[in-house]
Amino acid sequence: MLSLANVSRQMIVPLFSRLRTGRGQANPLAAYQELRKLGEVFPAPWGGYLVTSHRLCHQVLRDRSWRVPDLHWRLSQDDSARWSSPASRQMAASLPMLNPPDHTMTRKSLGNIFDRHSLARLRPFIEETADRLTDRFFEEARDEGSADFCSLVADELPVITIGQWMELPEADHELLRTLTHDQVHTQELFPSRSQLALSDSATAQLRQYFTDVIRERRSSPGEDPISSWLRAWDGIESDRARADAAVHSLALFMILAALETTSHVLSASVRLLVDRPHEWEWLRRHPEDVGGAVEETLRYDAPIHMISRVASMDCEVGGVLVREGEMVQLMTGAAHHDPKQYADPHVFDIRRAQAHLSFGGGIHYCLGNALARLEATALLNSLLKRDARLSISAPPRWEPRIAFRRMTSMQLALG
Question: d(Cα 84, Cα 261) in Å, to the nearest integer?
Fold first, then answer.
């Protein structure tokens, strides 16, 4: 481990540049190993600190004194193009970027949206949809020799599921999926000007879309989640425009949170298992371990590899002084391969049965974790009940990202 004084920009920047390449996306573990060698916590060249150990990432995530980078923090930063863009300001109004007391009130208005009763009602639809999508995938793979699992299955199941739950028209699914992919650029570490422009445009279109949906639910309320949130916010906020704005942020957050991350979990779980036929065969004989395979996917290749927090006061992290208002970037992708926390962390072991940080922690623990797990479990069960062997017929392609993982293509062949 190097001292802080010896950790230089020349050591860190090339590692992050490597992570953005196709090779780095396909296997980021080598870069993470190099980052961990620099220490548990060290200065980032662009400001703030990087945290690489599981111990410290877990500590910060669960400590309520740490805050998320909310609108007030964003507007105080010098990089106005990055933090004051329309897309960034919209994200700052969403639940994951709210601090108490705003977070407390907004979270309460949602209720227990994915409790066991809600999931029990959704399960048959999700399982039927998974079967239908895998039927289509296998049909195309047989006809064409291979098929793209991402476009046919992994990108489809999450948007169909959340669309059904929110009662959004099926004809709108493609638009919502495309806009979600474009909007997420604002949540990346180093968005370019062109990416920010793309994210701003997507945000504007999503804002208009959900403005129209809320207007329609106002005129014809039902038992869907958006109508429920409107009723809840009407009891909280006397100003209807403010109530509608709060519900708008909730609806937009649900779409952004449900599609991109779940799609990655689905594609990553299949990629990791197809690459390891012995684990695939184990699951055929032991379907009760499918849940373990999902959890190990979430550890081995989580959908989010970096989480940001801001110090609410001067404090120490791993013996390093972090000043009030400074950001720490928790490299959870590296923390999930910390040998001090996981034995043989480079090994994908579906029987590992250890907790992970993929859904965050504390008050910002992911609300949709149970739904994502249900979708992944349904998909793997649908694939495993078929008498077919899959192989990767062309190298998967990835978005050049660091924080939010996204596989854009994975050609699978039968045989």
Answer: 24
**Inter-CA distances, 238 with 160, 214, 298, Å:** 34, 17, 42
Cβ atoms within 10 Å of 47's Cβ, excluding its own? 12
Evaluate the omega torsion of the peptide bond into residue 345 and state whether it is cis, within 30 degrees of 0: no
Name 18's Cβ contacts closer than 8 Å, sequence gap at least 6.
24, 31
Give the count of beta carbons closer than 10 Å to the beta carbon of residue 14.
12
The token pair at 71 is 């609108």
For position 7, what pLDDT does the model report?
61
27 closest CA partner among 212, 219, 218, 268? 268
Helix or strand (DSSP H, E) at 414: strand 411-414
Over the chain (415 residues), what is each successive 10-residue block's mean pLDDT? 59 87 90 92 92 97 95 84 82 90 90 89 97 97 95 97 96 94 85 88 94 95 94 92 92 90 96 94 94 97 95 95 96 96 96 93 91 97 91 93 92 91
Look up residue 247 and give its two tokens.
């519900």
C-alpha 221, offset from chain centre: 30
- DSSP category for residue 347: S
Query: Given this model, what pLDDT does residue 84 score?
Result: 79
Residue 8 has a pLDDT of 64
Question: Contact at 8 Å (CB) between 187 and 259?
Answer: no
Cα–Cα distance list, 53 to 25, 38, 314, 316, 329 (Å): 20, 11, 21, 15, 11
In DSSP terms, 329 is beta-bridged to 50, 308
Contact 87, 256 (CB under 8 A): no
Quick one: pLDDT at residue 9? 67
Cα–Cα dist 177/165, whole Å:
15
3-state secondary structure 241-257: HHHHHHHHHHHHHHHHH
pTM metric for this prediction? 0.93
E strand or H helix at 25, and its extent? helix 22-26
CA–CA separation, 50 and 361 (whole Å): 18
End-to-end Cα, the chain, rounded Å: 46
Nearest Cα to Cα of residue 100 among 70, 126, 77: 70
Residues in CB range of 119: below 8 A, 6 or more apart = 370, 371, 374
